[in-house]
Protein backbone atom coordinates (compact mmCIF):
# COMPACT_ATOMS: atom_id res chain seq x y z
CA UNK A 1 0.00 0.00 0.00
CA UNK A 2 1.27 3.45 -0.89
CA UNK A 3 1.05 5.45 2.36
CA UNK A 4 -1.23 8.47 2.29
CA UNK A 5 1.60 10.84 3.25
CA UNK A 6 3.58 9.61 0.21
CA UNK A 7 0.49 10.29 -1.94
CA UNK A 8 0.09 13.83 -0.57
CA UNK A 9 3.81 14.61 -0.92
CA UNK A 10 3.84 13.38 -4.52
CA UNK A 11 0.73 15.37 -5.45
CA UNK A 12 2.22 18.52 -3.92
CA UNK A 13 5.21 18.13 -6.29
CA UNK A 14 2.89 18.34 -9.33
CA UNK A 15 3.63 22.08 -9.28
CA UNK A 16 7.15 21.22 -10.48
CA UNK A 17 5.61 20.32 -13.85
CA UNK A 18 5.02 24.03 -14.31
CA UNK A 19 2.04 26.14 -15.33
CA UNK A 20 -0.61 25.33 -17.94
CA UNK A 21 -1.11 21.57 -17.64
CA UNK A 22 -4.19 20.55 -19.65
CA UNK A 23 -6.54 17.83 -18.34
CA UNK A 24 -9.79 16.24 -19.45
CA UNK A 25 -12.14 14.68 -16.91
CA UNK A 26 -14.94 12.66 -18.50
CA UNK A 27 -17.43 11.93 -15.71
CA UNK A 28 -16.06 14.77 -13.59
CA UNK A 29 -19.49 16.10 -12.60
CA UNK A 30 -19.82 13.68 -9.67
CA UNK A 31 -18.06 11.17 -7.43
CA UNK A 32 -14.58 9.87 -8.14
CA UNK A 33 -14.10 12.07 -11.22
CA UNK A 34 -15.11 15.19 -9.28
CA UNK A 35 -12.85 14.32 -6.30
CA UNK A 36 -9.88 13.70 -8.62
CA UNK A 37 -10.52 16.84 -10.67
CA UNK A 38 -10.55 18.97 -7.52
CA UNK A 39 -7.31 17.36 -6.27
CA UNK A 40 -5.75 18.13 -9.68
CA UNK A 41 -6.89 21.77 -9.62
CA UNK A 42 -5.64 22.17 -6.04
CA UNK A 43 -2.16 20.83 -6.80
CA UNK A 44 -1.34 22.40 -10.18
CA UNK A 45 -0.30 25.85 -11.42
CA UNK A 46 -2.76 27.60 -13.79
CA UNK A 47 -4.27 24.35 -15.12
CA UNK A 48 -6.80 24.21 -17.96
CA UNK A 49 -9.47 21.58 -17.31
CA UNK A 50 -12.28 20.24 -19.49
CA UNK A 51 -15.17 18.64 -17.66
CA UNK A 52 -17.48 16.33 -19.64
CA UNK A 53 -20.86 15.03 -18.41
CA UNK A 54 -24.57 15.75 -18.73
CA UNK A 55 -25.37 17.62 -15.51
CA UNK A 56 -24.84 21.36 -16.11
CA UNK A 57 -25.97 22.31 -12.57
CA UNK A 58 -23.34 20.05 -11.02
CA UNK A 59 -20.74 21.40 -13.46
CA UNK A 60 -21.55 25.02 -12.47
CA UNK A 61 -21.11 24.14 -8.79
CA UNK A 62 -17.81 22.35 -9.42
CA UNK A 63 -16.45 25.20 -11.56
CA UNK A 64 -17.27 27.65 -8.75
CA UNK A 65 -15.64 25.39 -6.12
CA UNK A 66 -12.54 24.98 -8.31
CA UNK A 67 -12.26 28.79 -8.51
CA UNK A 68 -12.09 28.84 -4.70
CA UNK A 69 -9.41 26.09 -4.69
CA UNK A 70 -7.21 27.75 -7.33
CA UNK A 71 -7.93 31.24 -8.69
CA UNK A 72 -5.70 30.68 -11.73
CA UNK A 73 -7.49 27.46 -12.79
CA UNK A 74 -9.64 27.55 -15.92
CA UNK A 75 -12.37 24.89 -15.90
CA UNK A 76 -14.77 24.54 -18.82
CA UNK A 77 -17.86 22.31 -19.04
CA UNK A 78 -18.65 20.41 -22.23
CA UNK A 79 -22.10 18.86 -22.07
CA UNK A 80 -22.25 15.43 -23.73
CA UNK A 81 -24.09 12.14 -23.29
CA UNK A 82 -21.25 9.73 -23.96
CA UNK A 83 -23.43 6.63 -24.28
CA UNK A 84 -23.10 7.50 -28.01
CA UNK A 85 -19.76 7.74 -29.82
CA UNK A 86 -21.15 10.54 -31.96
CA UNK A 87 -21.28 12.68 -28.81
CA UNK A 88 -17.74 11.60 -27.86
CA UNK A 89 -16.54 12.75 -31.29
CA UNK A 90 -18.37 16.08 -30.92
CA UNK A 91 -16.81 16.72 -27.48
CA UNK A 92 -13.34 15.81 -28.82
CA UNK A 93 -13.74 18.26 -31.74
CA UNK A 94 -14.51 21.05 -29.25
CA UNK A 95 -11.36 20.21 -27.28
CA UNK A 96 -9.22 19.87 -30.43
CA UNK A 97 -10.28 23.40 -31.45
CA UNK A 98 -8.91 24.77 -28.16
CA UNK A 99 -5.88 22.60 -27.33
CA UNK A 100 -2.80 21.32 -29.15
CA UNK A 101 -1.79 19.15 -26.20
CA UNK A 102 -3.49 17.26 -23.39
CA UNK A 103 -1.39 16.09 -20.47
CA UNK A 104 -3.98 13.97 -18.67
CA UNK A 105 -7.26 12.22 -19.45
CA UNK A 106 -9.19 10.77 -16.47
CA UNK A 107 -12.34 8.79 -17.31
CA UNK A 108 -14.97 7.81 -14.74
CA UNK A 109 -18.18 7.90 -16.79
CA UNK A 110 -20.53 5.16 -15.58
CA UNK A 111 -23.63 4.17 -13.68
CA UNK A 112 -24.99 1.36 -11.55
CA UNK A 113 -28.13 -0.02 -13.17
CA UNK A 114 -30.08 -3.25 -13.45
CA UNK A 115 -30.88 -2.57 -17.12
CA UNK A 116 -30.91 -5.26 -19.77
CA UNK A 117 -29.12 -4.56 -23.05
CA UNK A 118 -30.07 -1.03 -24.07
CA UNK A 119 -28.84 -0.34 -27.59
CA UNK A 120 -28.01 3.15 -28.86
CA UNK A 121 -28.58 4.07 -32.55
CA UNK A 122 -24.97 2.99 -33.20
CA UNK A 123 -25.80 -0.63 -32.26
CA UNK A 124 -23.82 -0.54 -29.00
CA UNK A 125 -25.14 -1.14 -25.48
CA UNK A 126 -25.21 2.18 -23.60
CA UNK A 127 -23.66 0.90 -20.35
CA UNK A 128 -20.97 -1.00 -22.26
CA UNK A 129 -20.28 2.24 -24.14
CA UNK A 130 -19.92 4.23 -20.90
CA UNK A 131 -17.50 1.71 -19.38
CA UNK A 132 -15.53 0.89 -22.49
CA UNK A 133 -16.17 2.18 -26.04
CA UNK A 134 -16.51 5.86 -25.09
CA UNK A 135 -13.31 5.67 -23.03
CA UNK A 136 -11.28 4.10 -25.84
CA UNK A 137 -12.78 6.56 -28.32
CA UNK A 138 -11.73 9.60 -26.22
CA UNK A 139 -8.18 8.22 -26.02
CA UNK A 140 -8.07 7.26 -29.68
CA UNK A 141 -9.42 10.63 -30.91
CA UNK A 142 -7.11 12.64 -28.67
CA UNK A 143 -3.89 10.67 -29.28
CA UNK A 144 -2.38 13.54 -31.34
CA UNK A 145 -2.84 15.88 -28.34
CA UNK A 146 -1.45 13.26 -25.91
CA UNK A 147 1.55 12.69 -28.21
CA UNK A 148 2.23 16.42 -28.39
CA UNK A 149 2.12 16.57 -24.57
CA UNK A 150 4.75 13.81 -24.43
CA UNK A 151 7.09 15.68 -26.80
CA UNK A 152 6.76 19.22 -25.37
CA UNK A 153 7.93 20.31 -21.89
CA UNK A 154 7.18 19.01 -19.28
CA UNK A 155 6.76 15.86 -21.46
CA UNK A 156 3.99 14.58 -19.22
CA UNK A 157 1.23 12.51 -20.86
CA UNK A 158 -1.14 10.02 -19.20
CA UNK A 159 -4.57 8.44 -19.36
CA UNK A 160 -6.47 6.82 -16.48
CA UNK A 161 -9.67 4.77 -16.75
CA UNK A 162 -11.29 4.19 -13.35
CA UNK A 163 -13.32 0.98 -13.37
CA UNK A 164 -12.42 -2.43 -11.99
CA UNK A 165 -8.74 -3.35 -12.45
CA UNK A 166 -8.03 -6.54 -10.50
CA UNK A 167 -11.61 -7.82 -10.82
CA UNK A 168 -11.03 -9.73 -14.07
CA UNK A 169 -13.14 -12.76 -14.97
CA UNK A 170 -13.47 -14.96 -18.05
CA UNK A 171 -15.14 -13.38 -21.10
CA UNK A 172 -16.96 -14.66 -24.20
CA UNK A 173 -14.50 -14.14 -27.06
CA UNK A 174 -17.11 -14.92 -29.70
CA UNK A 175 -19.47 -12.13 -28.49
CA UNK A 176 -17.12 -9.40 -27.28
CA UNK A 177 -19.75 -6.62 -27.43
CA UNK A 178 -22.38 -8.92 -25.83
CA UNK A 179 -24.76 -8.38 -28.75
CA UNK A 180 -26.58 -11.66 -28.02
CA UNK A 181 -25.42 -12.69 -24.53
CA UNK A 182 -25.71 -9.46 -22.48
CA UNK A 183 -26.11 -9.52 -18.69
CA UNK A 184 -24.98 -6.86 -16.21
CA UNK A 185 -22.32 -9.19 -14.77
CA UNK A 186 -20.95 -10.05 -18.21
CA UNK A 187 -20.91 -6.36 -19.12
CA UNK A 188 -18.68 -5.75 -16.08
CA UNK A 189 -16.44 -8.74 -16.93
CA UNK A 190 -16.00 -7.71 -20.58
CA UNK A 191 -15.44 -4.01 -20.00
CA UNK A 192 -12.92 -4.58 -17.18
CA UNK A 193 -10.83 -7.07 -19.16
CA UNK A 194 -11.07 -5.03 -22.36
CA UNK A 195 -9.90 -1.88 -20.49
CA UNK A 196 -6.89 -3.94 -19.28
CA UNK A 197 -5.89 -5.16 -22.73
CA UNK A 198 -6.43 -1.81 -24.42
CA UNK A 199 -4.08 -0.19 -21.87
CA UNK A 200 -1.45 -2.72 -23.03
CA UNK A 201 -2.21 -2.26 -26.72
CA UNK A 202 -2.08 1.55 -26.54
CA UNK A 203 1.13 1.45 -24.45
CA UNK A 204 2.83 -0.79 -27.00
CA UNK A 205 1.99 1.71 -29.77
CA UNK A 206 2.56 4.93 -27.79
CA UNK A 207 5.79 4.62 -25.75
CA UNK A 208 5.77 8.24 -24.55
CA UNK A 209 2.40 7.92 -22.77
CA UNK A 210 1.32 5.92 -19.67
CA UNK A 211 -2.02 4.07 -19.86
CA UNK A 212 -3.60 3.16 -16.53
CA UNK A 213 -6.70 1.29 -15.41
CA UNK A 214 -7.58 1.52 -11.71
CA UNK A 215 -10.08 0.17 -9.20
CA UNK A 216 -11.16 2.92 -6.77
CA UNK A 217 -12.31 0.72 -3.83
CA UNK A 218 -15.74 1.25 -2.33
CA UNK A 219 -16.55 4.97 -2.50
CA UNK A 220 -19.77 6.74 -1.47
CA UNK A 221 -20.80 8.61 -4.65
CA UNK A 222 -23.84 9.26 -6.84
CA UNK A 223 -23.25 5.97 -8.68
CA UNK A 224 -26.54 4.36 -7.54
CA UNK A 225 -28.76 7.22 -8.78
CA UNK A 226 -30.09 5.20 -11.74
CA UNK A 227 -31.05 2.14 -9.65
CA UNK A 228 -34.77 1.52 -9.01
CA UNK A 229 -36.09 3.15 -5.84
CA UNK A 230 -36.27 -0.14 -3.85
CA UNK A 231 -32.58 -0.81 -4.54
CA UNK A 232 -31.59 2.75 -3.56
CA UNK A 233 -33.52 2.46 -0.28
CA UNK A 234 -31.88 -0.92 0.46
CA UNK A 235 -28.46 0.58 -0.27
CA UNK A 236 -29.15 3.56 2.02
CA UNK A 237 -30.04 1.18 4.87
CA UNK A 238 -26.77 -0.76 4.61
CA UNK A 239 -24.56 2.30 3.89
CA UNK A 240 -23.63 2.94 7.58
CA UNK A 241 -22.30 -0.64 7.77
CA UNK A 242 -20.56 -0.38 4.39
CA UNK A 243 -18.98 2.92 5.39
CA UNK A 244 -16.55 0.91 7.55
CA UNK A 245 -14.98 -0.34 4.30
CA UNK A 246 -15.29 2.84 2.27
CA UNK A 247 -12.53 5.07 0.93
CA UNK A 248 -13.38 8.72 1.73
CA UNK A 249 -13.98 11.38 -0.92
CA UNK A 250 -10.81 13.39 -0.30
CA UNK A 251 -8.61 10.27 0.00
CA UNK A 252 -10.08 8.91 -3.25
CA UNK A 253 -9.35 12.15 -5.12
CA UNK A 254 -5.79 12.29 -3.78
CA UNK A 255 -5.11 8.61 -4.50
CA UNK A 256 -6.53 8.65 -8.04
CA UNK A 257 -4.50 11.83 -8.72
CA UNK A 258 -1.39 10.05 -7.44
CA UNK A 259 -2.12 7.09 -9.74
CA UNK A 260 -2.60 9.54 -12.63
CA UNK A 261 0.66 11.38 -12.09
CA UNK A 262 3.29 9.50 -10.05
CA UNK A 263 6.58 8.42 -11.61
CA UNK A 264 5.92 4.96 -10.10
CA UNK A 265 3.95 4.29 -13.32
CA UNK A 266 6.17 5.70 -16.09
CA UNK A 267 5.58 5.46 -19.86
CA UNK A 268 7.54 2.74 -21.66
CA UNK A 269 9.98 5.28 -23.13
CA UNK A 270 9.73 8.71 -21.55
CA UNK A 271 11.69 11.50 -23.25
CA UNK A 272 15.31 11.36 -22.03
CA UNK A 273 17.04 14.09 -20.08
CA UNK A 274 14.02 15.28 -18.12
CA UNK A 275 12.98 13.39 -14.98
CA UNK A 276 9.44 14.79 -15.14
CA UNK A 277 8.66 12.91 -18.39
CA UNK A 278 8.30 9.75 -16.28
CA UNK A 279 5.85 11.51 -13.92
CA UNK A 280 6.24 13.11 -10.51
CA UNK A 281 9.68 11.93 -9.23
CA UNK A 282 9.62 9.04 -6.74
CA UNK A 283 10.16 9.65 -3.04
CA UNK A 284 13.19 7.93 -1.44
CA UNK A 285 12.57 4.24 -0.80
CA UNK A 286 9.66 4.02 -3.27
CA UNK A 287 10.29 1.76 -6.27
CA UNK A 288 8.80 1.51 -9.77
CA UNK A 289 5.61 -0.52 -10.17
CA UNK A 290 5.39 -3.55 -12.39
CA UNK A 291 3.30 -3.14 -15.50
CA UNK A 292 0.22 -5.25 -16.29
CA UNK A 293 2.46 -7.83 -17.98
CA UNK A 294 4.72 -8.09 -14.93
CA UNK A 295 7.50 -6.01 -16.53
CA UNK A 296 8.84 -2.74 -15.12
CA UNK A 297 8.37 0.24 -17.52
CA UNK A 298 5.76 -1.47 -19.66
CA UNK A 299 3.71 1.77 -19.88
CA UNK A 300 0.44 -0.07 -19.02
CA UNK A 301 -0.59 -0.41 -15.39
CA UNK A 302 -3.46 -2.04 -13.46
CA UNK A 303 -3.69 -0.30 -10.10
CA UNK A 304 -5.70 -1.00 -6.97
CA UNK A 305 -7.32 1.78 -4.90
CA UNK A 306 -4.25 1.92 -2.63
CA UNK A 307 -1.68 2.39 -5.41
CA UNK A 308 -0.53 -1.25 -5.50
CA UNK A 309 -0.44 -3.12 -8.80
CA UNK A 310 -3.28 -5.57 -9.23
CA UNK A 311 -4.79 -7.86 -11.89
CA UNK A 312 -5.82 -11.51 -12.22
CA UNK A 313 -2.34 -12.55 -13.41
CA UNK A 314 -3.19 -16.15 -14.30
CA UNK A 315 -6.23 -15.24 -16.39
CA UNK A 316 -4.50 -12.30 -18.08
CA UNK A 317 -1.38 -14.25 -18.97
CA UNK A 318 -3.52 -17.11 -20.35
CA UNK A 319 -5.49 -14.64 -22.51
CA UNK A 320 -2.28 -12.81 -23.48
CA UNK A 321 -0.76 -16.07 -24.79
CA UNK A 322 -3.92 -16.57 -26.91
CA UNK A 323 -3.46 -13.12 -28.49
CA UNK A 324 -6.56 -11.65 -26.84
CA UNK A 325 -4.98 -8.18 -26.73
CA UNK A 326 -4.83 -8.13 -30.53
CA UNK A 327 -8.39 -9.53 -30.72
CA UNK A 328 -9.72 -6.77 -28.45
CA UNK A 329 -7.80 -4.07 -30.37
CA UNK A 330 -9.10 -5.25 -33.75
CA UNK A 331 -12.65 -5.63 -32.43
CA UNK A 332 -12.56 -2.08 -31.03
CA UNK A 333 -11.12 -0.45 -34.17
CA UNK A 334 -13.62 -2.45 -36.26
CA UNK A 335 -16.50 -1.18 -34.10
CA UNK A 336 -15.27 2.41 -34.48
CA UNK A 337 -15.32 2.02 -38.29
CA UNK A 338 -18.77 0.42 -38.21
CA UNK A 339 -20.16 3.17 -35.99
CA UNK A 340 -18.59 5.90 -38.17
CA UNK A 341 -20.47 4.47 -41.18
CA UNK A 342 -23.74 4.34 -39.21
CA UNK A 343 -23.25 7.93 -38.11
CA UNK A 344 -22.54 9.10 -41.69
CA UNK A 345 -25.95 7.63 -42.56
CA UNK A 346 -27.51 9.41 -39.58
CA UNK A 347 -26.11 12.76 -40.76
CA UNK A 348 -27.33 12.08 -44.32
CA UNK A 349 -30.86 11.16 -43.20
CA UNK A 350 -30.93 14.18 -40.86
CA UNK A 351 -29.99 16.54 -43.70
CA UNK A 352 -32.06 14.97 -46.50
N1 LIG B 1 -18.18 4.27 -6.32
C1 LIG B 1 -17.65 3.07 -6.19
O1 LIG B 1 -17.64 2.48 -5.11
C2 LIG B 1 -17.07 2.37 -7.39
C3 LIG B 1 -16.50 1.09 -7.19
C4 LIG B 1 -15.94 0.46 -8.29
C5 LIG B 1 -15.94 1.07 -9.54
N2 LIG B 1 -16.50 2.30 -9.69
C6 LIG B 1 -16.49 2.89 -11.03
O2 LIG B 1 -15.94 4.18 -10.99
C7 LIG B 1 -16.52 5.01 -12.00
C8 LIG B 1 -17.01 6.31 -11.38
O3 LIG B 1 -18.04 6.03 -10.47
P1 LIG B 1 -18.55 7.05 -9.37
O4 LIG B 1 -18.77 6.23 -8.17
O5 LIG B 1 -17.70 8.24 -9.32
O6 LIG B 1 -19.99 7.40 -9.98
P2 LIG B 1 -20.81 8.77 -10.09
O7 LIG B 1 -20.65 9.60 -8.88
O8 LIG B 1 -22.19 8.37 -10.48
O9 LIG B 1 -20.12 9.49 -11.34
C9 LIG B 1 -20.31 9.01 -12.63
C10 LIG B 1 -19.99 10.09 -13.62
O10 LIG B 1 -20.32 9.57 -14.92
C11 LIG B 1 -21.04 10.56 -15.63
N3 LIG B 1 -21.96 9.95 -16.56
C12 LIG B 1 -22.88 8.98 -16.33
N4 LIG B 1 -23.61 8.74 -17.43
C13 LIG B 1 -23.13 9.59 -18.38
C14 LIG B 1 -23.48 9.85 -19.73
N5 LIG B 1 -24.48 9.18 -20.32
N6 LIG B 1 -22.79 10.78 -20.42
C15 LIG B 1 -21.78 11.48 -19.82
N7 LIG B 1 -21.41 11.28 -18.54
C16 LIG B 1 -22.08 10.36 -17.83
C17 LIG B 1 -21.81 11.32 -14.56
O11 LIG B 1 -22.06 12.63 -15.05
P3 LIG B 1 -23.51 13.23 -15.46
O12 LIG B 1 -24.50 12.72 -14.47
O13 LIG B 1 -23.27 14.69 -15.44
O14 LIG B 1 -23.77 12.74 -16.84
C18 LIG B 1 -20.82 11.36 -13.42
O15 LIG B 1 -19.97 12.47 -13.56
C19 LIG B 1 -17.65 4.18 -12.62
O16 LIG B 1 -17.19 3.60 -13.81
C20 LIG B 1 -17.89 3.09 -11.58
O17 LIG B 1 -18.37 1.90 -12.16
C21 LIG B 1 -17.07 2.97 -8.64
TrEMBL record:
<dbReference type="InterPro" id="IPR036291">
    <property type="entry name" value="NAD(P)-bd_dom_sf"/>
</dbReference>
<dbReference type="Pfam" id="PF00106">
    <property type="entry name" value="adh_short"/>
</dbReference>
<protein>
    <submittedName>
        <fullName>NAD(P)-binding protein</fullName>
    </submittedName>
</protein>
<keyword id="KW-0560">Oxidoreductase</keyword>
<dbReference type="InterPro" id="IPR052228">
    <property type="entry name" value="Sec_Metab_Biosynth_Oxidored"/>
</dbReference>
<dbReference type="InterPro" id="IPR002347">
    <property type="entry name" value="SDR_fam"/>
</dbReference>
<dbReference type="GO" id="GO:0016491">
    <property type="term" value="F:oxidoreductase activity"/>
</dbReference>
Amino acid sequence: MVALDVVHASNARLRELGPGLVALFVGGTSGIGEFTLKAFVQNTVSPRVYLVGRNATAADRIIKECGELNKEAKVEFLRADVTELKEVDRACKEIEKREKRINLIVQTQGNLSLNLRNENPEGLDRKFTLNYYSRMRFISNLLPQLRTASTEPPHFSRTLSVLGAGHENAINLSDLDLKTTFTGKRCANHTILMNDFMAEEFAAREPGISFLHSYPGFVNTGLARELPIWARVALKVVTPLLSLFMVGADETGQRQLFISTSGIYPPAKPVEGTALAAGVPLAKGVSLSKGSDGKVRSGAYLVNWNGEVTGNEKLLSNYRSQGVGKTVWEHTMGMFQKVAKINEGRVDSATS
